[in-house]
Amino acid sequence: MIENVVELRDVRFRRAGKEILHGVDLTVREGEHWALLGPNGAGKSTILGLCGARAHPTSGTVHVLGHRLGRVDMQELRRSIGHVDPRHPLRSPLTVREVVLTGLTGSIELPARWRPAGDDVARADGLIGDLGLAAVAGERWPTLSQGERGRALIARALTARPRLLLLDEPSTGLDVAAREQLLETLDALFAAQPGLASVVVTHHLEELPTTTSHALLLRAGSVVAAGAAVATVTTENVSAAFGHPVGVTRADGRWAARTRVRQPT
Ligand SMILES: Nc1ncnc2c1ncn2[C@@H]1O[C@H](COP(=O)(O)OP(=O)(O)OP(=O)(O)O)[C@@H](O)[C@H]1O
């Protein structure tokens, strides 16, 4: 059994002559649900790319599912990771069911001569049902709402039974009802698969599922705080990460943030 699903140690990452991550440590264990929080440009997506075996660190080490990046076939490793990228570059008008099935082939489009086995279709339809998409399973990608596309991409990411699910701003562009439905779906999914680990990137505390167990707060490529969510997502840490006085509250397992108004003395 692999205890650490993701392990970053003193990770630095440079691109175009600029250091983007300045010595980041992160350990994600089985069954943990991490949130990466921080302002624009803090380096959240860069960390998610390392967790998803899409990039190598410039220095330091990254282990994903027990394999050290740089010493493993990245493409092979990526098949064990469900990565939900909202900028999914699909060009052809596949149906929801076909998009979900591309999770099995690890491709964006359906490979020309590939045909799913009967139990592949049954699994895809099961996930489509779990994600609340049964009514649109035969609808084509260009006709779907943003919320439906996001759900289809989560179902796609789960088809290959990953042990790690990565979500990059899954609530972006959703109305409040669609966001709440998505968060309920994620909570139900995590409860049904207790070994699954996840990492979600977001700018907004309101978009954290109640199942969020841990958080890493990032500012300009450095970790401000990391650990158990309740102890980490605090007024002090969030204000430091975002460089703004933000009051953090938590009720019924959900977080909220607003500008801290100074009381007149
Ligand atoms: N390939 C690259 N080449 C040069 N700079 C890059 C590259 N990728 C990311 N960066 C820079 O690294 C910094 C961190 O980017 P990243 O996308 O990880 O941040 P983020 O926290 O996810 O931001 P956002 O919330 O805006 O999505 C940014 O300043 C970005 O411009």
From TrEMBL:
Superkingdom of source: Bacteria
Keyword ATP-binding (UniProt): yes
Pfam family, one: ABC_tran
Signal sequence interval, chain numbering: none
Keyword Iron-sulfur set for record: no
Molecular function per GO: ATP binding
ABC transporter domain span: 6-245
Entry keywords, A to Z: ATP-binding, Nucleotide-binding
Family matches, as PANTHER family: SKFA PEPTIDE EXPORT ATP-BINDING PROTEIN SKFE
Protein name: ABC transporter ATP-binding protein
The species this protein was found in: Paractinoplanes deccanensis
